[in-house]
């Protein structure tokens, strides 16, 4: 990160303009206008350090991992396993507690089928919050259908915060698993996961935390949260797509049967039977996304160099600015105003469909997401079929927020 003219905030010595310059895509134009990318909750942009790392792997080191003793195979294996070590350090965990996988969806399915499926029975229940992403709903529905378990729902308040009294009341004796998002991808709500996991553990409930929207935006000490499983997605934290990890307590990994079978996850195979590898490798069948995870390791290095506390503070300032600017627009409704909130704003404009809003904003160079955001039950709670969502990252600027607000005001006039 080079030192150039900076966009600095009060008390912050980091050169945010120079940091932004590390992201090549942010220099492009869309429809003849400078791009304002406000869709980082969907996927984060990639710094040159990550792009160069992936490129270098394919140009100079490309080989399969854990299968060859030649120089390229050794280099690939060391870089891939090095990425596991980097992730472990980033999350204050041990490398043997991290299963590398394609992301949070795979990670939650792994827990559902390898841990929950062999244990659940009729009469058991799985507790989920109203604000869950489909990735933390559908796998549990599939497992419930196969085991006879039921799904229970913990409701939220109108401001988008979790009703903790209702959640605790729902933690009855039949509940065996609690699936909960750390940060809502639609509302930005930050849930008090330490407090919730402590209460769940007291009641003997296993906790599965979806950390997709938390890991890119705040410092995490995963073991200290007190959960049993924690899932992360790499492409939202400046890494390549198809990357991520499941953190799990070692006793769970040791007790879980493999999710997929094939190469790498074994010690010995005979037709009479197979001896499986230790965790986490027993859950990593087949050739992995080697270059992607090496790129994710580079993303972790990049984020670590900036500092996650600084990133969180920067994004809080951007959120405050954007919230103030949007509240000045007539007919605009912000959905999700919880006291503890990450840099996500879901909104609607009176008389306009979310997709029309997003399409017209795109013509102004502003990229936001429209739709249900893989959270149908949450939008049903608010009685809307879709919202627009602006999601911010540390590489966004205050000037972009002003451009966003101006574009939205223009679109509001066009739609009458």
UniProtKB/TrEMBL annotation:
Keyword tRNA processing in record: no
Cofactor annotation: pyridoxal 5'-phosphate
Give the catalytic activity. (sulfur carrier)-H + L-cysteine = (sulfur carrier)-SH + L-alanine
Q: Where does the record place the Aminotransferase class V domain?
A: 36-404
Q: Which domain of life is it from?
A: Bacteria
Q: Which family does it belong to?
A: Belongs to the class-V pyridoxal-phosphate-dependent aminotransferase family. Csd subfamily.
Identify this protein by name.
Answer: Cysteine desulfurase
Q: Which organism is it from?
A: Lysobacter hankyongensis
Q: Which UniProt keywords apply?
A: Pyridoxal phosphate, Transferase
InterPro entries xref list: Aminotrans_V_dom, Aminotrans_V_PyrdxlP_BS, Cys_dSase_SufS, PyrdxlP-dep_Trfase, PyrdxlP-dep_Trfase_major, PyrdxlP-dep_Trfase_small
Q: Does the keyword Transferase apply?
A: yes
What is the protein's known function? Catalyzes the removal of elemental sulfur and selenium atoms from L-cysteine, L-cystine, L-selenocysteine, and L-selenocystine to produce L-alanine.
Under Enzyme Commission nomenclature, its number is 2.8.1.7
């Amino acid at each position: 990160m080079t030192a150039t003219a900076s966009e600095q905030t009060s008390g912050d010595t980091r050169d945010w303009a120079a940091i932004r310059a590390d992201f090549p895509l942010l220099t492009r134009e869309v429809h003849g206008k400078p791009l304002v990318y406000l869709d980082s909750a969907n996927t984060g942009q990639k710094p040159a350090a990550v792009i160069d790392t992936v490129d270098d792997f394919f140009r100079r080191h490309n080989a399969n991992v854990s299968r060859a003793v030649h120089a390229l195979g050794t280099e690939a294996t060391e870089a891939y396993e090095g990425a596991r070590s980097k992730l472990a350090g980033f999350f204050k965990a041990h490398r043997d507690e991290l299963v590398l996988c394609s992301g949070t969806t795979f990670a939650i399915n792994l827990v559902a089928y390898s841990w929950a499926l062999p244990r659940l029975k009729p009469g058991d229940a799985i507790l989920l919050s109203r604000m869950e992403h489909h990735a933390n709903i559908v796998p549990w529905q599939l497992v419930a259908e196969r085991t006879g378990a039921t799904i229970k729902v913990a409701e939220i308040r109108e401001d988008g915060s979790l009703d903790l009294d209702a959640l605790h009341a729902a933690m009855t004796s039949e509940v065996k698993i609690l699936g909960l998002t750390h940060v809502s991808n639609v509302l930005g709500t930050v849930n008090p996961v330490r407090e919730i996991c402590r209460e769940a553990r007291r009641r003997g409930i296993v906790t599965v935390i979806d950390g997709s929207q938390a890991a890119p935006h705040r410092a995490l000490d995963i073991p200290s949260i007190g959960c049993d499983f924690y899932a992360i997605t790499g492409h939202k934290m400046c890494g390549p797509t198809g990357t991520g990890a499941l953190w799990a307590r070692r006793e769970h990994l040791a007790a879980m049967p493999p999710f997929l079978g094939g190469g790498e996850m074994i010690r010995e195979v005979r037709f009479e039977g197979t001896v499986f590898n230790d965790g986490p490798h027993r859950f990593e069948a087949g050739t992995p996304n080697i270059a992607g995870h090496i790129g994710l390791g580079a993303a972790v290095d990049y984020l670590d160099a900036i500092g996650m506390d600084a990133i969180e503070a920067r994004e809080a300032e951007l959120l405050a600015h954007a919230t103030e600017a949007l509240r000045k627009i007539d007919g605009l409704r912000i959905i999700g105003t919880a006291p503890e909130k990450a840099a996500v704003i879901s909104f609607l404009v009176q008389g306009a469909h979310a997709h029309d809003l997003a399409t017209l904003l795109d013509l102004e160079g502003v990229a936001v997401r429209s739709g249900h955001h893989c959270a149908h039950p949450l939008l049903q709670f608010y009685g809307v079929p879709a919202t627009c969502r602006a999601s911010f990252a540390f590489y966004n600027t205050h000037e972009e927020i002003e451009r966003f607000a101006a574009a939205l005001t223009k679109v509001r006039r066009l739609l009458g």
